[in-house]
Structure formats: C-alpha cells, structure tokens
Amino acid sequence: MDVIRRNNVHVAGRGDRPIMFAHGFGCDQNMWRYVAPAFERDFKVVLFDHVGAGGSDLSAYSREKYSSLQGYADDVVEICRALALTGIVFVGHSVSSVIGILAAASAADLFEALVLIGPSPRYVNDGAYIGGFTESQIEELLKFLDSNHMGWSAAMAPTIIGNPDRPELADELTNSFCRTDPEIAKHFARTTFLSDNRADLARVRARCLVLQCSEDIIAPNSVGEYVHAHLPNSKLVVMKATGHCPNLSAPAETIEAIRAFV
Known about the structure:
Structural class: alpha/beta
CATH topology: Rossmann fold
C-alpha cells in the first residue's frame, strides 16, 4: 500500500485496540522508543513518519499540500483507513497534537480519544490569547532557520528540550533536526509556527487528554489551559516533567499519564 510505504508505517503489539503515535517538528517515530513499547501488550501500536521526516518517502513531499497542517492530518486519516483502524487512541506530540485535532475533526468515526502532549493551536500572541511568542519573535526564529539550518538546530534544541542538566537530550534533538532536509524543515516550520487552529478545537468530539509540561517555553501553561477550555470533552494534566519533550525526558511519567486516561 502506497500510504504505508510513503509514511514509513510500522505496526506492533498484541492487542486489538489501536494506539497511534505521531511525532513533532524535526523528529521522527524514533522519538517514541521509550514510550510506545509500553503499550504493545494491550494495544495495536502504530508508528509512522510525517512526509518529509525520518524514513518517509521524500519524493512525496508537496509544498502545496503541506502548506497547511490539514495536509498532514489527511495523511493520518489515510493511514488509519489503509489499516482499517477504528476506535483509535491518537497520541500527538507538539504540532502533531494539532494534526490529530484536525484528523479527528474531519474523520470523527475513526478516533475514540486524543492524547495531546504540549499542544499549541497558535504560537503567536493575539490580544488576550497568549501563545508564548510575539509575531516579531516568530519571524526572527524563521529567518534564523532560513539562513542557517544547522546553527538554528544547535541553538534551538536545548531551549526546546529544557533539562539543561541532561545535555544528551539536547544533543539528540539537535541531531534529529540536522537529519531533516533543510528545505522541508524550513517549510514545515512556517506551516507550524504561523498556523492558527484555535477554531478547530470546538470541532473535536473525541475525549481528549491535554498533557502540559511544566516550564515549557514552546507551549506555556496558558496555552494548555486554553486548549483544555476550548475542547468540548477534555482533561488537563500538568506534568512534573519540564521542557517540551517528555517522551524523551520523562517517559515513565508520560506512560503513566496516558495509561490512566486510556
């Protein structure tokens, strides 16, 4: 099946109930290696790479299709239909949280629950809405990425990952960023950081768990609270984990939170 090859889909586990893990910007399915195996006993575990990341088919990348997060959401739905999955628990990290929201809004029959780790429907502040960044800060971030992909990766990874006492985590994220095709990374960054999907939250009918990390510079507490308040059926859990990548920095706490919800 083309979609399985295109998105480098892997299925494992002994259960019938599907749980699907979706990685964030600049990453791939390897970022779930500390979390996903914990669910293989009870679930059918689905891992994949967004087009342009990891082992996906880079020739399938379309600037037009992926100029919107809906393009990635359409891929998620296509994978689910190709595998004949229903009653899915979708676990999305960072931008994939919003991709999961869009997928669930457009194909409500497929998704039973969403786990949203560090979600942000809009990164730019807008009046009373505090997304964490000013418009000029986002533009500076994108200009830096446009001019120096490697330098941006080395500078941003430690900020995103947090946990300065564990530099090996920042090194891993830096290496992941650097493995991404620079032109695809630049385009995906613009699609991600300039998106505004606040209006899509109300379209979701699946029950949702919002996992908010402490001291997350990318998706601050105000954003997690906003997402929780605007999803029709959600629960907010503030984790002890700091930074933006608890799947790497605090996998045990992440697993525990997901298990308690599903």
